[in-house]
Design goal:
Number of helices: 11
Helix content: 25-40%
Mean pLDDT: 94
Oligomer: single chain
Distance between the termini: 29 Å
Low-confidence stretches: none
Radius of gyration: 21 Å
Number of domains: 1
Order of helices and strands: EEEEEEEEHHEEEEEHHHHHEEEHHHH
CATH superfamily: Penicillin V Acylase, Chain A
Strand content: 15-25%
Shape: globular
Number of strands: 16
Largest sheet: 8 strands, antiparallel
Length: 432
């Protein structure tokens, strides 16, 4: 389960995403340099080979460690993309491109949001979507929706198998794990209605609605997708109504819980900031991203860690001479990663209310200090500014790791939530 936001105001575009995955599925932030031409004719994505593009943009990705693609990311042309799982009626069973592959391909090959949209839709029509998308859950398969944005425009793209529609965002928009576009799309796949009728998805009576034709009901209901979508729109509406939009508010929107003052033990699938807790509540926010895009500059922040309500957003850029703390040396090495180190803190503090509150207060202070560096320069930071900002979050991360790493676990007695995390910690190697 995931939630993705985009908001456009005052010549700025703000993008945000929580990536909800299995709680033991490490999500790593990597920076891949641009390629102006290579000799590789084929590219191996997660499951299939496709033609490689010799010219590729530099990208920063937040990706589950075991797949080729990414949950979300940005390229050096100012394009950002995030995807959502969609359990459509047109899912194909054979292997193809998974949504995370399409995110990365759109970023590597897309010069603009328009171009990235075309890249993704052409690949969907040519190669289809398909393949296991779960880490341990080998039954997890899905189609995808996307938010694709650049400093000038944003699109919501929704798919069902090889069918797709797209809608341009004018002010703000959000997607979750359900289809949202009915009759009001701006673009669509060729012969959409006829193909849907021939394949038995559309009876041909009345006005064609993509959402009604292809959306499933069961999984979105149990995942509370439409409740989270409502919560996302509420957050974005409030943010949009403010005279000025501050990037810290975009970050805090991703920390939204249905019960603002509740603990993770009382969480629900209605929370934008997702805390795993059992058979129904299986997803955990394993990584988060926020971007501020403009003609003058694009700024990107990733947690690189689980649970944004217990995480600090960390700056990163395409300057290869800066070794940002949030970056991982590659897309597969979990040991020693920022994600793993923070998990020792996260899995202890979800059961420790007072210390969790102290950490959250520390996060707010540190994040404000870090963001003030960007505010002082009207969000046009120099290399030295980026190094200063990274140093602030690096010192905070090191201090928190040493302070909380060896605290004893305090699982609540007679609690399903406690039993769930005790078993999860044993399975993932965090029980010490």
């Amino acid at each position: 389960m995931c939630d993705t936001h985009v908001l456009m105001k005052n010549n700025m575009v703000y993008f945000a995403k929580n990536s909800d995955r299995e709680p033991g599925e490490a999500q790593l932030v990597v920076r891949v340099p641009a390629s102006l031409g290579d000799d590789f004719g084929k590219l191996r994505t997660t499951y299939i080979l496709i033609d490689q593009a010799p010219r590729r943009h530099g990208v920063i990705l937040s990706k589950p460690f075991w797949i080729w693609g990414a949950e979300m990311g940005a390229n050096d042309r100012g394009v950002v993309i995030g995807n959502e799982a969609i359990y459509s009626r047109a899912m194909e069973k054979k292997k193809g491109l998974i949504g995370m592959d399409l995110v990365r391909l759109g970023l590597e090959r897309g010069d603009t949001a328009d171009h990235a949209l075309n890249v993704i839709t052409e690949l969907i029509e040519a190669r289809g979507q398909g393949g296991v998308c779960g880490f341990r859950d080998q039954r997890m398969r899905y189609d995808n929706s996307f938010i694709i944005a650049d400093p000038h425009q944003a699109w919501i793209l929704e798919t069902a198998g090889r069918f797709w529609v797209a809608k341009q965002v004018k002010t703000f928009g959000a997607i979750s794990n359900c289809l949202t576009i009915g009759e009001d799309y701006d673009l669509k796949s060729d012969c959409l209605e006829d193909r849907a009728r021939r394949q038995g998805f559309f009876k041909g009576r009345g006005v064609f609605s993509f959402k009604k034709t292809f959306d499933s009901r069961l999984i979105p209901f149990f995942a509370a997708s439409r409740y989270r979508l409502q919560s996302s729109h509420h957050c974005l509406q409030q943010t949009f109504q403010e005279k000025g939009v501050h990037i810290s508010q975009i970050m805090n929107n991703l920390r939204t819980h249905e019960d603002q003052y509740g603990s993770p033990t009382a969480g629900a699938n209605r929370d934008i900031c997702m805390h795993a807790g059992g058979f129904i509540r299986r997803s955990q926010t394993c990584g988060s991203m926020v971007s501020q895009l403009s003609d003058k500059n694009c700024l990107h922040f990733f947690t690189g860690t689980s649970a944004p309500c217990l995480s600090l957003f960390k700056p990163v850029s395409f300057d290869s001479e800066i070794d940002f703390i949030v970056l991982n040396p590659d897309g597969k090495t979990v040991d020693g990663s920022v994600w793993q180190n923070h998990e020792y803190i996260h899995r202890r503090l979800i059961f420790m209310d007072k210390k969790r509150q102290m950490l959250q207060e520390s996060i707010a202070r540190t994040e404000n200090e870090m963001l003030s560096i960007f505010e002082e320069k009207q969000f046009l930071p120099t290399r030295d500014d980026m190094i200063r900002a990274d140093d602030i979050v690096r010192k905070w991360s090191d201090r928190c790791f040493h302070e909380y790493r060896h605290h004893t676990f305090h699982y609540p007695s007679m609690s399903r939530y406690g039993r769930f995390w005790k078993k999860q910690n044993e399975m993932d190697g965090f029980n010490f």
